[in-house]
Amino acid sequence: MGFSGTVSWKNFDFNMFWQGIMKRSHMPGSNIWWGVATRGNNGGAFYDGHDDYWRPANETNLFGPNTDAYYAKPYVSAETNKNQQVQTRYLQNASYFRLKNIQLGYTIPRSVSERLKLQSLRVYVSGENLVTFSKMTKLLDPETSFTYEWMQGAIYPLSKSVSAGLNLTF
């Protein structure tokens, strides 16, 4: 779904574009999802939240026991994907609603722009991907989570940007 809107008042203009998907489920399986416990020789990484893995109470380790963990105990092995089997525990609600673009502009009055030998002069500030509403894990981007399996969510973290500019018409 998408929603866009434009409002103009005097020399000001405001534009925004929202997009989203209302219902979609996703079973993650990428290196970003599993972290250091990746399949094969694809490498791995340790992202925020990956420390919530199962650790027995009777074992001494860096993080301490965690018997009520979200992730299974990681096994790093090229021969097995032991605890990375498909199961509903990890099924993600991949619906989302995102503010893709928002822009606020001001067009300088024509009397001023003509003195500068311009037809028009507009200044603006723009924002991209500033807000996302989703129940999906923050490790994955709901918009790109359905790309090739090996790169699901590979844009983590999603880039947000704010820019400013001028539109000149000679």
Mean pLDDT, as a whole number? Answer: 83
What's the overall geometry? elongated
Uncertain regions: pLDDT < 50 for 5+ in a row?
none
Tally of discrete structural domains: 2
Specify the structural class.
mainly beta
Distance between the termini: 38 Å
Helicity range of the residues? under 10%
Strand order of the largest sheet: 1-2-5-6-7
Q: How much beta, percentage-wise?
A: 25-35%
Q: What is Rg? A: 24 Å
- Main beta sheet, described? 5 strands, antiparallel
Count every helix, treating DSSP H or I runs of 4 or more residues as helices. Answer: 2
Q: Give the number of DSSP strands.
A: 7
Order of SSEs: EEEHEEHEE
Structure report:
By secondary structure, this protein is mainly beta. The protein folds into 2 domains: 106 residues, no CATH class; 57 residues, no CATH class. It is built from 2 helices and 7 strands, in the order βββαββαββ. The strands form 2 sheets. It has a 5-stranded antiparallel β-sheet with strand order 1-2-5-6-7. The longest helix has 6 residues.
What's the topology here?
Layout: E1 2-9, E2 12-21, E3 25-26, H1 31-34, E4 92-93, E5 96-107, H2 110-115, E6 120-134, E7 161-169
Antiparallel strand pairs: 1-2, 2-5, 3-4, 5-6, 6-7
